[in-house]
């Protein structure tokens, strides 16, 4: 059989890539036109042209600000956040060989929230430690707690999930304690709404932080795609295939911690994206990580943009926390995945 039969189908891949870009562009175009202020697509395109290329097209100052400074930055942040969390979920599921693994369930998001709140309210680190750094320290602490609990419980993948649930409750309790005892009433309201996830405060400087982190994290994961495929056969099999198991696991765990920390510090805690999207992507493109990770990136971006749009239109004149919307879809999906995993076992 010819090499072409075994080689990658490049026309199909290029077509899929173009289709994904078109879908993302359409989703972002919808996101910048939907909201309390209805703005026609042609005016939105003019505002984007003015903001990106300084074209000087006729657009009112209010519409220009709403489209470019608020809705566009919000839509792009939603895409980055959704894609990054979906990739993190796929990585954790591969490393732990558990279909229920994702940053939210494993407590990494809760640890990041605690670290960010500690910096914000307690002033931990003074002026030298920002929200992202505090969130990273918190996420690493959560990983350490999960690893300690799981090793003490035998180290099986189901024990890791249970350890993650315990760690999540621990860090959520720590966050609640800090907020209720030390924060002012105004701080408490802001933090509690932020913890449920919100793109309302996202501005362009946040994207300058999130974009390189998301792209670098995606690149690191893609470099380790073959190693992740090997983990499907178990740690011992991966080592036998020449994978530097310890190094790969450390690099990828740290990568997921950094990605989650940055996204949580900007957006707040958003759950279930890393659980639902990898399973949907596997259904569409298979389990090979060279295809799965790009599919997760695009699927997560589309899912989060859609969730953000729904958060603005589900209840008139009110914006729902993004974590509430993702939970409405993610919780039933979690139950289905749990049921299927139990049937397989």
What characteristic shape results from the CA principal axes? globular
Which spans of ≥5 residues are poorly predicted at pLDDT below 50?
1-7
The percentage of residues in β strands lies in under 5%
Oligomer: single chain
Structural class: mainly alpha
Assign a percent range to the helix content: over 70%
Overall residue-averaged pLDDT value? 87
Distance between the termini: 38 Å
The main pleated sheet reads as: none
What sequence of helices (H) and strands (E) makes up the elements? HHHHHHHHHHHHHHH
Write down how many β-strands occur, each being a DSSP E stretch of 2 or more residues: 0
Tell me the number of helical segments per DSSP (H or I, 4 or more residues long). 15
C-alpha Rg, in Å? Answer: 21 Å
Commentary on this structure:
It is a single chain. This protein is mainly α and 345 residues long. The protein contains 15 helices and no strands.
Descriptive terms for the model:
single chain; 345 residues; mainly alpha; disordered N terminus
Question: What is the topological layout?
Answer:
Blueprint: H1 3-6, H2 10-33, H3 41-53, H4 61-96, H5 108-122, H6 131-152, H7 157-182, H8 185-195, H9 204-223, H10 225-231, H11 235-240, H12 245-267, H13 273-285, H14 289-313, H15 322-344
